[in-house]
Amino acid sequence: MATNSLLLKYCIKDSLETFDPYDIWKIKLGEITKRFYNFNKFLGIIPAIILTCFDFFINNKLRLFYKKQEYPVVRAFAAMSLLNQYKCEINENLLLNIEKHLDWLKNNYSKGYSGYCWGINFKHVVSNKVNYPKDQPFSTITPYVLEAFLNYKEITNDNCYDDVIHKIFLFFENDIKIIEETEDYLITSYSTFKDRIVINAISYTLYSYSLYLGIYKEKEGYIKNKIIKLYNYIRENQKENGSWLYSPEGNSFIDCFHSCFILKNLIKASAFIDLKEVNVVIEKGYGYIEENFYNIKYGLYKRFTKSNKPSIIKFDLYDNAEMLNLLLLLNKYDLALELKNNIEKVFIKGEDIYSVIDLFGNKKNKNTLRWAVMPYLYSISKM
User: Cα(278)–Cα(235) distance, rounded to whole angstroms?
Assistant: First the structure.
């Protein structure tokens, strides 16, 4: 199916409600099982495996007990994908749909915080100590929405969303917490309390601040200082082989798409600010991904190089969608085109896009927009 047709099929809709790979863990039984697993992994692994197998092998097509819902990041990706199309094809219908998504985001933010902000829109049980409520905003989601509003302003020269853009800055300033700060580095939270240290979340905060350098020129010195300190921490935690653990704390992992998140945020931020030896950091990080995640037989990128739990997934679209985006940011267009073709062969059937290939080679999670149809459509919209 042509790129343009895919964009129109999935992005031009009044509702972007979708099923999600996380659906099994959003139902009450799933939430209880995950809490039990976090409390006692030895005993909790049994019900967790049972639910995973039920979701994956029995209920994947039926979606019994699950409900479609909206996700802010889906709206943001849809808006940005259509904006990329609009740059090539000035079209009033495209603009109306872009504004529809942006207006939805403006009206559906997380309430009770200093500024506009967004999260994943469902309860998320991370550990015994960290459980996020449904409306919890994140440093990893809000930047996509910020970017969507800024892209709209840049492409259309319309200032109608300036108030939202300014108030998102207040979220990062007042609600994202400082976990630790020294003269050299800064560690910020994932969400609105001192929850956990996650490297890709720090990179999202870094990138978000870089977007404000051209907006708040009177605060340039202050913003640059924060960015440099955040960058120093990310750089300090890059391993000699170029990889990053998801978190430097606990039993962590190394996967493909979170590695891509860090690199893309550094690449995009470096367009606004000079970061010491950032090209070396990016080159090492990219080299690690190519050497360790790439499966030459399928021409796709695998899920983990270091895992902290068992998995029945062979390939995930999210890893490959983010890798496609990274290749485009690095101007490796030939490799991006090759990856796009391999994604189409494996993950797409007719007009349907699947997010997962299991260990048996079966396509799973059809048209789940958050994970990872929309990240893929956004990447191909840039081509």
Answer: 8
* 190 phi, psi to nearest 5 deg: -75, -40
Reported as a single tens digit per residue, the pLDDT across 270-299 is: 999 999 999 999 999 999 999 999 999 999
Instruction: Kindly indicate the confidence band of residue 236, based on its pLDDT and cuts at 50, 70 and 90.
Output: very high
Write out the two tokens for 287: 């080299």
Rounded Cα–Cα distance for residues 269 and 272 (Å): 6
Q: Are 49 and 354 in contact (CB under 8 A)?
A: no
Tell me the C-alpha distance between 134 and 127, whole Å.
16
pTM score, two decimals? 0.97
- Return the structure tokens found at 34: 């995950």
Q: Are 206 and 265 in contact (CB under 8 A)?
A: yes
Please give the angle made by the CA atoms of 289, 290 and 294, to the nearest 5 degrees. 95
Q: What is the pLDDT of residues 203-234, one digit of tens each?
A: 999 999 999 999 999 999 999 999 999 999 99
Find out whether 300 and 343 touch, Cβ atoms under 8 Å.
yes
Whole-angstrom CA distances from 42 to 24, 48, 49, 266 are: 20, 11, 12, 38
Q: Give yes or no for a cis peptide into 2 (omega within 30° of 0).
A: no
Contact 244, 289 (CB under 8 A): no
Q: Is the pLDDT of residue 87 over 70?
A: yes
Average pLDDT for residues 15-37, to the nearest whole number?
Answer: 96
Residue 8 CB coordination number (10 Å): 17
